[in-house]
From TrEMBL:
Keywords: Coiled coil. This is Arginine/serine-rich coiled-coil protein 2. Residues 123-180 form the Small acidic protein-like domain. Pfam families: SMAP. The gene is RSRC2. It comes from Myripristis murdjan.
Length: 192
């Protein structure tokens, strides 16, 4: 029990440290993104209008880089998520990358304590006799079944019970009858 409690404390500590690291990384990333956006706006190489005004010849590569920088700055301003520098800016759509990051964060964020789905409430009503068996069953099932599925399962189990009772009654009350057994009538005919 003591080991279990210690491991819980360690897990809680590790979780807090992870959250703190994520918060620090997010702050650093936002700061870098703001610096990149400011640099992109002031950098004469990436600012096509300034290059054209200065009389410098603008190549398609420079124009494309300027467009990508502007798109990344726009994405950063709208979503707060920037494409990391190790990605090729011409190969990654910043808006799609931001959407993916948001989805990833929502996926790994986890549920809050008060959130319960309808299926979880349905499974909680299910009773197997004692609490331990109920909890074990819910864990194994993943608590992802709808009301309709539960009703279908209940009907199927009722049908199985009825069929079992019918088969049981036939085996106990009609013993010695059916294929492989001779009837009393055919025994009488053999004697003649």
């Amino acid at each position: 029990l003591r080991g279990y409690l210690l491991s819980l404390l360690r897990l809680e500590r590790a979780k807090k440290l992870q959250e703190q690291k994520e918060k620090e990384m997010l702050e650093k990333q936002q700061q870098q993104q703001q610096e990149m956006a400011a640099a992109a706006a002031t950098n004469p190489v990436l600012n096509v209008a300034a290059l054209l005004a200065s009389g410098t010849q603008v190549t398609p590569q420079i124009a494309m880089a300027a467009q990508m920088a502007a798109l990344q700055a726009k994405t950063l301003a709208e979503t707060g998520i920037a494409v990391p520098s190790y990605y090729n800016p011409s190969a990654v759509n910043p808006m799609k990358f931001a959407e993916q990051e948001k989805k990833r964060k929502m996926l790994w964020q986890g549920k809050k304590e008060g959130d319960k789905s309808q299926t979880a409430e349905l499974w909680e009503k299910l009773n197997f006799g004692n609490k331990d068996q109920n909890v074990k069953f819910r864990k194994l099932m993943g608590i992802k079944v709808s009301l309709k599925t539960l009703q279908q399962q209940e009907e199927m189990f009722r049908n199985l019970d009825v069929q079992y009772e019918m088969a049981r009654s036939q085996t106990h009350t009609q013993r010695g009858m059916g294929l492989g057994f001779s009837s009393s009538f055919s025994r009488g005919m053999d004697a003649i």
